[in-house]
């Protein structure tokens, strides 16, 4: 009586004075509050991501599931949202909401939307951007930027109309904004955000790790140097811990089947298992008699009713799958014991609800490796499986073909009276296979032998003190782990009564397991910490709870260090309900070693103490201060599991190489921490099923050093195997990252998953949380910022990515937890669809390669001597010599194209020179020699009489692609005027395209403008007046109304070096540059192309190019007049309505030579990819095509040309026919494949070497290999040399340098309104600083290299191939290395199938990546981590800003080249209307 009175007194006293006593603080709340308090004064503005309004969808509150109806995670690495919550009242009188609100209000003062503490990093990587000192890429070949020419009105540069219908002209491109390329548009919201980001990144917080170093371009990891501040182990060498001896009990059965037979015959009415419905009422009671008889029935039918007598489907030792739902443990238990009695091996798995279940494919691989052909299931489950229209169960993805066998008694045959199963003593045969999911999502099957099964049950019986007829409440999964071992196996051995609580009931009533403990006076309950946590949330509704009957509350995830908070909280609340402190018994277990340790009932609970979190990351255990009230924010608490299982495993924590100190957690090997166990008494799991090569590692490991008394080879139980490896090799215990969740949880997330991804040779931490549907964008961003701060302060580790997803969208395990591996897979695939993402690569990635240190340049003389010594020739090459080529070219005797046209009009007047096709493929118009001559004469008369022009005046020709443009050009030559071809404004987009026309007209000083009547009206329309000042146009002449008379005489230039025409083009860097072409250069150009392509009057050439600049203009307007061949003209804009027009014309006219642009080729590849069969049926034949040349001023797009060749190979196109040309501003065509000569060659170079301006040839398929295709054969009369752009000295063969060209058809110089003579001299009149210093060269501004091949030219000499790498003024200098945008863009396009186009540029040293999304706007945020990952992995660069835009936003010029600088200016002026803009921290 005295004891009872004392207990009552203590209980009464605690209730009365509890409110006045100081309450023990919660360690996690303290930790988070202390972490956030550090940032109370620091409120730096971090740019919030920009999101399009349509993307901010307010989710209905109906979709929100309250916390008490959701379950926690089944995975060790995922952490339930606020599962660390602990009530602060010792009696549990304060509910969870009150505790949470206290925690929140206690830390709101430190709330900030900043993640400024995440800045920092290594070396140059994190001294990213100083606005006042930007990196300037020295530009040796940039033409003058005439776009800064100012007029009365803003001048806009057009985005030329591409050849795809989806591309619409963007709303940006103002030339005034181009002046801000090196500055900041003051009114730009985007620029202000980037400035915030730059300011944040300029504050390095944490010293960097030892970096990578570069040795012969092989990035090697340095050996990690130990941190001098890292705690070191001080304890004695660890010894094996021995469990108590297994007691000898005389009446223990010799096997589990024998135990079932005993209880089934002696006590058939004794209850074995009670199942519950969703209302908490008993659904079915399985007695031991029923279990015995039904198991025998199942065993008989498995062995005798499947297959035939001669060929049974299942024999003893075969494996069968058990597919039963979680709410039907009785049927599963019957089938399990039926398999044991039949001596077949059961493989319990989850029910596949759909063909795409999370992890279902991996389960299928397991079944296939186990040789499973039969699946046992219940009638209800069988009916619920997905069916095909014929009623058959379809084969699930990755699954073997299965026979589904229903185990209900009504479907089974009764065994004969004389048939009994053969019950043997336990042996080393396999009893069952338990599946386990690895960290990477793969599934392994662990085989458990019959002797291990029996010995484990005996050890659990002795450890837990189980006795007959005890009642146990089981909330765990009965298919595996603790739920299987206690609820299905050990319970039968001891004739216990199991109350099974299904997950469906726990969702509805989280207190159901406590109610059943009270109702049945249960002695034992098996739960997880999440079940205890949800009971805390719902306990306020229950008053008559009494847990005094419990003697063991087994916590199955007691090996998780953070489960202690749930245990503490549960004890604090339910201690007043009769729960005793010593009842809570955490256990440590794994499928490999079964139960390793469990706290005994009646032992005084203790803890291993509080360990320093920093020490645990350093793999040492440091004791902290014992008092809970003294626990600081950087300490964690660990369960002491206390006792190793009797007769069971002996354990030691092991380093992979040797035994550590007794205070050392373990050394990390990959991401595995091994706790080897040795079981002398026979608790020994067999192996992994189907993966023998893994078994030696896990089941037969050895200890390298130390006096260890182990009677057999230790095993890895796999405990703590999901430790996260933080950057730098530090480790994090699972669940430690969201330690701040109790404080921050109510703001946003519901459930949290934590995992790591490998990026750039290290693991990076990713946190994915479910967002509350009622939270705003600002709430979410504040929450993310505070999480980053708290984790950084508590754990000293950066979070790589923090993502919020909509509520109830994370993939779930069968019992409702987060399917961690599936979540990780969705994240890596870009299928997670988050609603908020915050990337912090600048913080986490501290192992970038060292920035390149540029050495002083070696003198050009030393380079030449070095090349001579090493036997390398100077990198120079030339085409055929024009003077030595003998041919019957009659046009050679004429110096001017106007004379050639007059000669052809006299000698071959009716020969057709030009044929223009419309979109239907029919002839729209054509021109013979005499028709062109007569029309040119009339235009010359109009220029002189109506325009009153003099010799040398400039005339702008604003015509659509066609015949009129050609006639106007020759009319200008006849009148002695200088023509300038200009693309007309687009009628649907005058506001953007017309300012460019106006700018070219003004910059070129055109005295007159010629055009058609339709365009003339457009230029004077009301829409045009809104875009430009139409009164400032020069005189406009309409060539649709020509005079009838001929000119008195046709102008003949006095000197071949006088100006013939001006060629204006917008470069990819956004500069408008016009070059001067003389009459001599024009004639030499046409002669060179004629010889290279073997063009004669009998030939026909199909041209699908824009005729406004470069080689496209020369082929469209000039070459036919000089060579006499017929040009079939196909305007690229016509392909928008008929993509097959060009190829059909090539086939119809049996053309041998054709020219196109990359945009045309891309349109055909994408638009006709699925129509090759129909085109073949229409008679499309490309077998006669000899050359198909892509006209470009860039590196060859080898992927596009190869795709085009493969796609149309079935239509007769020969792969060798497709080639490219190369030209630039100083020389419009340097290389052109032509008809004779070797095929274009392809080499593979190391991309890392290119960044250091070197060429290193590698094999195809090598890591970091980049394919480069030869840019065509060098034209006749052209000489090329590779020179150092800084020293101007010649380089050797296969060395990267600037391409210099000497040719008769070089341009004469830039035409500018500024007359910058120094630039003119540098680009068009350069000389080598050493060697041949007399030759005058023109600098192309492109990097490339020459390589002498083994092939031979037509003249028998070895072929020199030119490989173009990229433009100097487009290249980006980052971290001292030269990056070409196309390389980064190619990587990004490969990252995700929804990325259709990409463009990159730099701004204030930040790398900005713009991607076009082909998909729903909800996929936009998936691209941010993928883009960041791929650029880090392949290019060692940290992306600063990721911009996701609609298709067609990236501007493309007529040649298919990206206008990256226009895009940059549009982005900075906030004119892109992006879907999402992410500012990476």
What would you say this structure looks like, in words?
- It is built from 41 helices and 57 strands.
- Strand 3 (213-215) and strand 4 (218-220) form a beta hairpin.
- It starts with a helix and ends with a strand.
- By secondary structure, it is an alpha/beta fold.
- The protein is 29% helix and 20% strand.
Summarize the structure.
With 1481 residues, the chain is α/β, with parallel strands linked by helices. An eight-stranded mixed beta sheet has the order 6-5-14-13-15-16-17-18, with helices on both faces. An eight-stranded mixed beta sheet has the order 32-31-40-39-41-42-43-44, with helices on both faces.
Q: Helix content range of the residues, please?
A: 25-40%
Q: Mean pLDDT score, rounded?
A: 76
| Weakly predicted, low-confidence segments | 58-186, 205-224, 606-643, 647-684, 704-713, 720-726, 728-748
Q: How would a textbook summarize the main sheet?
A: 8 strands, mixed
Radius of gyration, Cα only, in angstroms?
Answer: 40 Å
Number of helices: 41
Please name the defining characteristics of this protein.
1481 residues; alpha/beta; eight-stranded mixed beta sheet; elongated
Secondary structure blueprint with pairings:
Blueprint: H1 2-17, H2 27-37, E1 50-51, E2 78-80, H3 96-107, H4 123-126, H5 175-178, H6 189-201, E3 213-215, E4 218-220, H7 256-266, E5 271-276, E6 282-287, H8 288-304, E7 319-323, H9 329-342, E8 345-349, H10 360-370, E9 374-377, H11 379-384, E10 403-406, E11 430-437, E12 443-449, H12 450-464, E13 471-474, H13 481-493, E14 497-500, H14 503-508, H15 512-520, E15 524-527, H16 529-538, E16 552-555, H17 563-574, E17 584-590, E18 594-598, E19 607-612, H18 613-617, E20 635-639, E21 650-651, E22 677-678, E23 685-688, H19 692-699, E24 724-725, E25 731-732, H20 741-744, E26 749-759, E27 762-771, H21 777-795, E28 799-805, H22 820-829, E29 836-839, H23 841-844, H24 860-869, E30 876-878, H25 897-907, E31 912-917, E32 923-928, H26 929-945, E33 954-958, H27 963-975, E34 978-982, H28 990-1003, E35 1006-1011, H29 1013-1019, H30 1022-1027, E36 1036-1038, E37 1059-1066, E38 1072-1078, H31 1079-1093, E39 1100-1104, H32 1110-1123, E40 1126-1129, H33 1141-1148, E41 1153-1156, H34 1158-1167, H35 1172-1177, E42 1187-1190, H36 1198-1207, E43 1218-1222, E44 1231-1232, ...
Parallel strand pairs: 5-14, 7-8, 7-9, 9-10, 13-14, 13-15, 15-16, 16-17, 27-28, 31-40, 33-34, 33-35, 35-36, 39-40, 39-41, 41-42, 42-43, 55-56
Antiparallel strand pairs: 1-57, 2-26, 3-4, 5-6, 11-12, 12-23, 17-18, 19-20, 21-22, 24-25, 26-27, 28-29, 30-47, 31-32, 37-38, 38-49, 43-44, 45-46, 47-48, 48-50, 50-51, 52-53, 54-55, 56-57
Helix pairs in contact: 2-21, 7-8, 8-9, 12-13, 16-17, 25-26, 26-27, 31-32, 34-36, 39-40
């Amino acid at each position: 009586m005295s004891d009872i009175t004392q207990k009552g007194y203590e209980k009464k006293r605690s209730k009365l004075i509890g409110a006045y006593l100081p309450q023990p603080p919660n360690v996690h709340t303290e930790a988070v509050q202390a972490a956030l308090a550090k940032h109370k004064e620091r409120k730096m503005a971090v740019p919030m991501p920009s999101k399009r309004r349509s993307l901010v969808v307010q989710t209905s509150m109906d979709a929100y599931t309250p916390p008490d109806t959701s379950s926690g995670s089944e995975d060790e690495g995922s952490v339930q949202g606020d599962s660390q919550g602990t009530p602060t009242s010792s009696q549990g009188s304060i509910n969870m909401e009150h505790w949470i609100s206290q925690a929140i209000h206690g830390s709101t003062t430190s709330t900030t939307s900043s993640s400024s503490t995440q800045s920092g990093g290594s070396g140059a990587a994190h001294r990213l951007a100083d606005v006042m000192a930007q990196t300037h890429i020295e530009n040796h070949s940039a033409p003058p930027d005439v776009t800064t020419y100012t007029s009365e009105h803003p001048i806009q540069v057009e985005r030329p109309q591409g050849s795809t219908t989806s591309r619409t002209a963007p709303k940006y491109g103002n030339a005034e904004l181009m002046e801000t390329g090196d500055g900041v548009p003051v009114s730009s919201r985007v620029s202000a955000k980037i400035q915030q980001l730059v300011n944040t990144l300029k504050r390095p917080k944490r010293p960097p790790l030892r970096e990578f170093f570069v040795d012969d371009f092989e990035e090697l990891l340095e050996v990690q140097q130990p941190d001098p501040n890292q705690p070191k182990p001080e304890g004695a060498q660890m010894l094996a811990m021995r469990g108590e001896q297994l007691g000898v009990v005389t009446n223990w059965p010799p096997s589990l089947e024998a135990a079932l037979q005993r209880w089934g015959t002696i006590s058939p009415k004794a209850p074995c298992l009670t199942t519950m419905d969703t209302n908490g009422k008993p659904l079915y009671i399985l007695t031991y008699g029923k279990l015995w008889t039904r198991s025998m029935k199942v065993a008989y039918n498995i062995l005798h009713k499947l297959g035939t007598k001669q060929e049974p489907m299942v024999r003893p030792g075969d494996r069968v799958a058990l597919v039963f739902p979680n709410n039907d443990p009785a049927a599963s238990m019957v089938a399990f014991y039926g398999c044991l009695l039949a001596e077949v091996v059961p493989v319990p798995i989850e029910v596949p609800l759909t063909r795409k279940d999370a992890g279902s494919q991996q389960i299928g691989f397991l079944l296939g490796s186990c040789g499973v052909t039969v699946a046992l299931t219940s009638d209800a489950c069988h009916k619920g499986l997905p069916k095909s229209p014929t009623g058959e169960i379809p084969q699930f993805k990755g699954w073997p073909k299965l026979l589904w066998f229903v185990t209900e008694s009504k479907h089974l045959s009764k065994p004969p009276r004389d048939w009994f199963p053969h019950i043997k003593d336990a042996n080393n045969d396999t009893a069952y296979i338990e599946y386990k999911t690895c960290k990477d999502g793969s599934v392994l099957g662990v085989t458990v032998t019959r002797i291990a099964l029996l010995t484990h049950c005996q050890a659990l019986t002795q450890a837990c003190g189980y006795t007959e007829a005890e009642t146990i409440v089981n909330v765990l999964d009965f298919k595996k782990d603790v739920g299987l071992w206690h609820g299905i196996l050990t319970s039968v051995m001891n004739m216990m009564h199991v109350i099974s609580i299904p997950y469906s009931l726990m969702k509805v009533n989280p207190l159901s397991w406590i109610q059943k403990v009270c109702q049945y006076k249960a002695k034992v309950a098996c739960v997880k910490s999440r079940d205890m946590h949800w009971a805390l949330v719902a306990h306020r509704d229950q008053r008559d709870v009494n847990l005094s009957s419990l003697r063991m509350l087994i916590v199955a995830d007691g090996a998780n260090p953070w489960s202690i908070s749930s245990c503490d909280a549960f004890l604090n609340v339910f201690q007043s309900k009769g729960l005793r402190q010593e009842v809570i018994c955490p256990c440590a277990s794994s499928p490999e070693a079964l139960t390793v340790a469990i706290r005994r009932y009646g032992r005084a609970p203790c803890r291993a103490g509080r360990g320093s979190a920093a020490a645990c990351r350093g793999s040492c255990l440091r004791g902290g201060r014992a008092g809970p009230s003294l626990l600081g924010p950087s300490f964690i608490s660990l369960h002491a599991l206390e006792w190793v299982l009797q007769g069971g495993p002996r354990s030691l924590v092991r380093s992979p190489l040797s035994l550590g100190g007794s205070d050392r957690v373990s050394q990390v090997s990959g991401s595995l921490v091994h706790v080897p166990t040795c079981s002398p008494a026979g608790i020994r799991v067999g192996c992994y099923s189907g993966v023998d090569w893994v078994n030696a590692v896990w089941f037969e490991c050895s200890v390298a050093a130390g006096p260890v008394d182990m009677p057999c080879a230790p095993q890895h139980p796999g405990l703590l195997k999901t430790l996260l490896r933080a950057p730098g090799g530090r480790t994090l215990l699972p669940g430690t990252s969201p330690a701040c969740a109790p404080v921050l949880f109510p703001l946003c997330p519901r459930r949290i998953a934590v995992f790591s991804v490998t990026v750039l040779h290290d693991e990076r931490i990713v946190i994915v949380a479910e967002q509350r549907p009622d939270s705003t964008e600002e709430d979410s961003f504040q929450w993310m910022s505070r999480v980053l701060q708290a984790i950084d302060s508590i754990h000293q580790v950066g979070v790589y990515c923090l993502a919020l997803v909509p509520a109830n969208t994370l993939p779930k395990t069968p019992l409702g937890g987060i399917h961690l591996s599936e979540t990780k897979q969705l994240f890596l695939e870009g299928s997670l669809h988050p609603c908020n993402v915050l990337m912090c690569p600048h913080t986490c990635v501290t192992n970038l390669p060292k920035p390149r240190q540029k050495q002083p340049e070696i003198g050009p003389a030393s380079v030449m001597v070095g090349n001579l010594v090493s036997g390398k020739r100077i990198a120079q090459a030339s085409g055929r010599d024009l003077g030595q080529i003998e041919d019957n070219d009659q046009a050679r005797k004429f110096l001017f194209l106007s004379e050639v046209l007059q000669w052809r009009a006299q000698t071959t007047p009716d020969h057709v020179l030009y044929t223009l096709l419309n979109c239907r493929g029919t002839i729209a118009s054509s021109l013979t020699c005499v028709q062109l001559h007569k029309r040119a004469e009339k235009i010359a008369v109009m220029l002189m009489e109506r325009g009153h022009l003099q010799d040398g005046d400039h005339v702008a020709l604003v015509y659509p692609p066609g015949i009129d443009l050609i006639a106007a050009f020759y009319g200008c030559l006849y009148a002695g005027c200088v023509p300038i071809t200009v693309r007309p404004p687009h009628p649907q987009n005058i506001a953007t395209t017309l300012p460019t026309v106006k700018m070219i007209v003004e910059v070129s000083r055109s005295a007159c403008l010629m055009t058609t009547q339709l365009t003339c009206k457009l230029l004077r329309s009301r829409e045009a007046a809104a875009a430009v000042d139409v009164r400032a146009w020069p005189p406009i002449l309409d060539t649709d109304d020509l005079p009838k008379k001929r000119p008195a005489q046709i102008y003949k230039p006095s000197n071949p070096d006088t100006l013939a025409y001006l060629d204006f083009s917008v470069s990819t860097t956004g500069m408008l540059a016009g070059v001067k072409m003389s009459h001599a250069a024009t004639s030499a150009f046409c002669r060179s192309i004629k010889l290279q392509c073997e063009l004669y009057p009998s030939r026909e050439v199909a041209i699908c190019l824009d005729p406004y600049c470069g080689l496209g203009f020369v082929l469209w307007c000039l070459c036919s007049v000089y060579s006499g061949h017929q040009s079939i003209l196909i305007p690229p804009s016509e392909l928008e309505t008929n993509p097959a027009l060009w190829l059909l014309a090539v086939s119809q006219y049996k053309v041998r030579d054709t020219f196109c642009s990359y945009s045309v080729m891309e349109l055909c590849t994408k638009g006709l990819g699925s129509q090759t069969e129909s085109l073949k049926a229409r008679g499309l034949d490309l077998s006669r095509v000899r050359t198909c040349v892509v006209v470009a001023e860039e590196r060859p797009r080898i992927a596009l040309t190869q795709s085009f060749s493969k796609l149309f190979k079935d239509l007769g196109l020969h792969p060798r026919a497709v080639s490219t040309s190369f030209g630039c501003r100083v020389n419009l065509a340097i290389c052109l494949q032509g008809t004779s000569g070797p095929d274009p060659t392809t080499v593979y170079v190391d991309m890392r070497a290119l960044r250091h301006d070197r060429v290193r040839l590698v094999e195809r398929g090598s890591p970091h290999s980049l394919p480069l295709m030869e840019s065509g054969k060098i034209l006749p009369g052209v000489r090329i040399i590779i020179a150092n752009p800084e020293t101007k000295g010649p380089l050797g063969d296969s060395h990267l340098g600037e391409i210099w060209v000497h040719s008769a058809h070089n341009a004469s110089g830039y035409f500018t309104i500024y007359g910058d003579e120094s630039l003119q001299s540098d680009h068009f009149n350069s000389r080598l600083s050493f060697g041949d210093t007399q030759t005058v060269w023109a600098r192309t501004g492109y990097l490339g290299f020459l390589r002498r091949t083994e092939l031979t030219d037509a003249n028998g000499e070895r072929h020199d191939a030119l490989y173009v790498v990229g433009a100097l003024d487009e290249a980006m200098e980052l971290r001292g290395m030269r990056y070409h945008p196309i390389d980064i863009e190619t990587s990004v396009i490969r990252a995700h199938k929804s990325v259709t186009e990409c463009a990159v540029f730099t701004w204030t040293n930040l790398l900005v990546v713009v991607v076009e999304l082909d998909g729903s706007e909800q996929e936009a945020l998936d691209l941010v981590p993928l883009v960041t990952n791929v650029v880090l992995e392949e290019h060692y660069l940290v992306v600063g800003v990721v911009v996701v835009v609609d298709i067609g936003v990236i501007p493309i010029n007529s040649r298919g080249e990206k206008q990256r600088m226009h895009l940059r200016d549009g982005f900075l002026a906030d004119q892109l209307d992006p879907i999402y803009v992410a500012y990476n921290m």
